[in-house]
Amino acid sequence: MGNKNPNGNIIVDGSGGYNQYDGGAHKRIFDKVRQEYVIGDPARSRLLSEIEISLLAPHFVVFLKSLFGAEIVI
Fold it and tell me: What are the phi and psi torsion angles at 12 (to 5°)?
């Protein structure tokens, strides 16, 4: 995101440190919250095209629900 205020819950920078552009919103609970967030690996990640997202979309919901232990309702 560069030098911008985070849009959403982006509380770490590219090195995993506290994102100074969070404006202190999460600073007091950072140690607790950082255990529950995912930090992507740029070497193993890539942006998907709109077609790829459309094709994979049904699988995303099932995967995310299994990851978070939610009941799958279709």
Answer: -125, 155
